[in-house]
Amino acid sequence: MEVIGGKWKVLILWALHEHPCRRFGELRRLLPGITEKVLASHLREMEADGVVHRVSYDEVPPRVEYALTEDGVRLNDALQPLAAWGRERPTARGLEEKAG
Amino acid sequence: MEVIGGKWKVLILWALHEHPCRRFGELRRLLPGITEKVLASHLREMEADGVVHRVSYDEVPPRVEYALTEDGVRLNDALQPLAAWGRERPTARGLEEKAG
DNA sequence: CAGCATCCTTAAGGATACTG
DNA sequence: CAGTATCCTTAAGGATGCTG
Q: CB under 8 Å to A90, separation ≥6 — which residues?
């Protein structure tokens, strides 16, 4: 739970799974509403947790790419049943209000 | 994620799965460190989310029993792959510090 | 472009006391 | 026994601005 505890962690995981080697700016655009700070800190935590692999190219302009590690891919897989559970539910409580 | 978002939600789910028809006091004892307020509010949210079923017996002394709904059981099942993932990991970051 | 520093808001969770 | 009420702490997340 700690590993996926952040507000955006599973979304990052998902985005990275859909397309490996995402760049920071791309990820930002993929996650409407996230701030650089939050994206950066989540990415760092996920790297420390061993689910995200970070590759920094020593160029100008700077380029950094992120991808899931094998463990990250496994985590994503392990999350699928949960995602399926959420998808098939008739949306209880006030959750749909936020979804719009 | 909203449904399992609370700090103790999955633990409650787990306790309820191990033994249906738990009582409030039992749950409290099963979850060392939880306060009445948090247990009560989590239970209420989980009831609103349709994963927990609450039965109140009109007796003296008061008796209330909690159990998982079918959807709650399915949620617990959907969480198993995630639990397995967490179990097989070599405990990255500082997670073991909290576990003691 | 990729990120860090700083400040601020807010809501989850905790402590304690009280009630039918 | 099974909660409710109130107050408080803390840390996640957000806004904004700056840097190599």
A: none
